[in-house]
Amino acid sequence: MSIRSCALVKALVLFALICPFGHQAYATVIASSGFNDQTGLNSTPTPNSPYTIGQTVDGRGEGESGWAGNWITQLNGGLGGDANALITSDAAKEGDGGLSLIPNGQVRAMRRLAVPQTRSFSIEQDVNFGAAGTLFSRPYSAGASEPWSIGPMWSITGPVGSRHFEVNNGQGNGLDNWITTGIAQTPGAWQHVEIDLNVATQTWTFSVDGQKFNQTLGYLGTPATIDYVEYLSDAAGYIDSVVVSTPEPTAVAVIMPALVRLLVRRSRRR
After folding, report:
1. Which end of the chain, C or N, has fewer beta carbons within 10 A?
2. Distance CA 199, CA 68 (A)
3. 22-249 maps to CATH 3.20.20.360
4. Which residues pair with 178 in a beta bridge?
C-alpha cells in the first residue's frame, strides 16, 4: 500500500472512532403500535382509524404494519376483557391516544407479529401505572405451550411506597426466578421500558429510562421464535408507543471495510 493510501486508511479509521454515530446501530422498525387516531405514531387522517378514542383495543389496530392481526384481549384467562382495555386520551404519552388497562381481575392484551423473530431485536414501550397491583409483560411464541413458549418476563410490582421493576432470570426450565432490579417504579409517571432479546442464545437485557439492569438474563422457556407481544395486569395503568425493532449496522460500519478493501486493491495494482 502506498504512503498516500495508508494515510487515507488511517484517516478513515480515525473518523470511525470519533464519529458520534460510528459506534451505534440504527434501528429498523419491525412493528409498532401507537394507539392513536388522528395524531401521533401510526395515526391517519381517517377518523377512528387505526383506533377509536373511548373504544376497546380489542380487534383494533388495522393498518399498522408488521403485525399478523389486531390486538386481542382476555379477562381472567378467558374470553372478554374488551371493556377493560380501552383507547383513551388520558393514556397518551404521545399522540391522541394510549392503551388504558382497567382490570376487573386480570386483563390480558396481546398482539402477534407478522414475522416470528429468530434474531436479536428489541421491544420498547412507555408505561404509567399506579401504586397497587402488578403488570407483567411476557413476549412469547405461538409455536409452543406455556411455560415453554415464554421468553423474557418483567413486571411492575411491590407494596405502596416500595414500587419497583422485577425481571425473571429464567433457566429454560419453565420455573420462575424473579429478581428485584433496584429500579424504582414512579407511580403516576411515564417510564420507558426497553428489553433487548437474543432468540438464538435465549438471553435478554432490561432497562428503564436508559438505566440498565446490569445482568444478562435467561428465558423462562425454550421458544425457538418470539412472535407475540403481551401485557397481563391486575393493576390499573397506561401503555403507549409499543415499538419492536432490530439493530442494523451504521453506514460507517458498512462502508469502512469496503473502502479499505478498495484502497488495498488499488494500491496493489500500482
Report:
1. C
2. 19
3. no
4. 168
| Residue 226 to residues 25, 149, 191, 219, Cα–Cα distance (Å) | 22, 8, 24, 11
pLDDT digits over 157-206, tens only?
Answer: 999 999 999 999 999 999 999 999 999 999 999 999 999 999 999 999 99
Half-sphere exposure of 237 (CA within 13 A, CB side): 31
Which whole-number Å values give the CA distances from 222 to 77, 114, 167, 226, in the listed order? 22, 20, 17, 10
Please, are residues 68 and 106 in contact by the beta-carbon 8 Å criterion? no
Q: Which residues pair with 121 in a beta bridge?
A: 197
Give the containing element (helix H, strand E) for 26.
strand 26-33
Give residue limits of the domains in the chain: 22-249
Cα–Cα distance, 26 to 246 (Å, whole number): 8
Polymer length of the chain: 270
Q: Which tens digit of pLDDT belongs to each residue from 96-147?
A: 999 999 999 999 999 999 999 999 999 999 999 999 999 999 999 998 999 9
Which helix (DSSP H) or strand (DSSP E) does residue 85 occupy? strand 85-88
**Count of C-beta atoms within a 10 Å radius of residue 63:** 12
Enumerate residues 6+ apart whose C-beta is below 8 A from 58. 70, 71, 72, 73, 81, 82, 85
pLDDT value, residue 267: 53
The answer to whether the CB of 166 falls within 8 A of the CB of 180 is yes
DSSP 153-171: -EEEE--TT--EEEEE---
